[in-house]
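Example record used in the benchmark description.
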Amino acid sequence: MVLYWYYIRMMNSDELIFGIDGGGTGCRAALCRAADGVRLSEGQAGAANIMTNFDAARENIVEACSKALEMAGLPHDQLPTTSAYLGVAGANAGSYAKKFAAALPFRQCEVNTDAEISLQGALGNGDGVVAIIGTGSVFISRFDQQIQTVGGWGFVVGDLGSGARVGRELLQETLLAHDHVRKATPITSHILNDFRNNPQTIVEYAHSASPGDFGRFAPLVLDYVEQQDVTALRIWNRAVKSVEETLASIIGERHPRLCLLGGFGKRYGEYLSGRIAEMVVPAQGSALDGAVDLALRTYAQPAQPAQPAQPAQPSSQREAQ
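Model output (structure tokens):
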């Protein structure tokens, strides 16, 4: 009975915290015990970009956390008594982070960017640079505890080197080839064939496409780069140049580690040049690992050392008091 009471006490939701990785394609929530940092369970759900779809991001984060509670054998209605540290896509824009924190059901929570938790996961407490390149892109560095972020402004005005930008450029190059502005190559013929050789279909697709819709064409560019396709090489060389230019601005004269993250980011490793290429190292952990680490730092209360027992006073002293 005593052991059962102790187990229930340790599993009480007042002592539980979440580390949450809310990305543009999906979110993950790790449920941890604050007392000792033990990770109890994880839950997953859909995209959590708060700038693209605020309400869906909230629903998906709640769903991921509810699944984690269920996996740990705890009821969903205990969610409001937990604390959470979130890194979510879109949190760097305007007041989105503050509004999102207020809309979440946790007892207390901290909302930051997904870049920040990726930095912590990849580098731990050390200095260095992280390039996160997937459908979108953002670059973040830490030197002497100072954090600097470059990019992450979204597909319309940012996300250089991202899958979405590369995919959109491929559609643009295909239309230029159709209009005989540029010479057609195998990759532009491939895209035209996909759209039934009708450029109007490409235009209609592009006008309603999401960043993810554009991004699905990006791997095709790399496939044709390997075949030395002139159009693919032109697109990819521009992307590599933009990534190197951005990295140079954030690295400066310092010589840190560089981690390449994201579904597209790792593909850049073999194409970077010079000093930047020499800096690349494997990441220590994932963005979710970073969220958990920051959650524990923010909310876990260190165990208080036991106070030494006071020596018993002689009876004569007790009587004198």
